[in-house]
Amino acid sequence: MNAEWNIRTCADCCAACQTKYADGETLMSRLRFTPEGYLRDDFCADCWPERSPGTETETSAWATVWHAPIPKAEEPLKKETAESLLRELMETEDPSKRNVVFILAVMLERRRILAEKEVHLQPDGIKIRVYEHKKTGESFVVPDPQLRLAEIESVQREVMDLLGIPLPQGKSAPNRPPAASTDPETTEKESAPTI
Ligand SMILES: [Zn+2]
After folding, report:
1. Least confident piece of the model among 9-13, 36-40, 130-134, 157-161
2. Is the pTM of the predicted complex or chain greater than 0.70?
3. 3-13, pLDDT tens digit by residue?
4. How far is the CA of 138 from the centre of ligand 1 (A)?
5. What is the sign, positive or negative, of the torsion defined by CA atoms of 83, 63, 9, 95?
6. Which of 38, 58, 64, 66 has CB atoms 3.0–4.6 Å from 21's, for a disulfide?
């Protein structure tokens, strides 16, 4: 099986002219969905309009600001975070972790570490979400498992467990009944006669 998800780093030079990007330079990135997998190319502003063919598979394109890599020494103390966990799991390519990978990506999007760039529907019906890491410019390609509300809670619990966050004791997961049966507005709408 091909890698279901992957991280594509931002190249440090233009795919066409090979010129190294300067810190703060705006470049253009594109992602292509090909039979071999997802391919990412980055171009400088001059080469972007002249880029080589591939437009028939080019489904996603966006501008990125190039940031020189942060020296390793500046990294905080090694501690499992949602981001480090997401990176580890995406490397393992373990299909049983697909729900966890998706929830972690959503968490990082809410924290504004990742930004959603594209939603791509594959011919097989699988929805692919492409996130860009706001600091590093990497693309995170994550299939959306289309979780239902009940599934989300158990996956969130698994994520907390993996992150070493203690689960609240005593009141385990408040069992909220489905919104439709308690929300009077929804119920009213649903029972309203259709003409
Ligand atoms: Zn160039």
Report:
1. 36-40
2. no
3. 556 777 778 89
4. 19
5. positive
6. 66
The alpha carbon of 105 and the centre of ligand 1 are apart by a number of angstroms equal to 31
Q: Locate the domains of the chain by residue range.
A: 9-68, 79-164
Task: Retrieve residue 74's tokens.
Answer: 């500046």
Residue 171 is predicted with a pLDDT of 46
Contact call for residues 68 and 90 (beta carbons, < 8 A)? no
CA of 147 to the centre of ligand 1 (A): 41
Ligand 1 centre from 62 Cα, in Å? Answer: 16
Q: Cα of 43 to ligand 1 centre, how many Å?
A: 5
Listing DSSP states for 141-177 in one string gives EEEE----HHHHHHHHHHHHHHTTPPPPSSS-S--PP
User: What's the gap in Å between 21 CA and the centre of ligand 1?
Assistant: 9
pLDDT tens string 31-71: 887 777 778 889 999 999 888 765 566 677 888 888 887 66
Pairing type for strands 6-8 and 58-65 reads unpaired
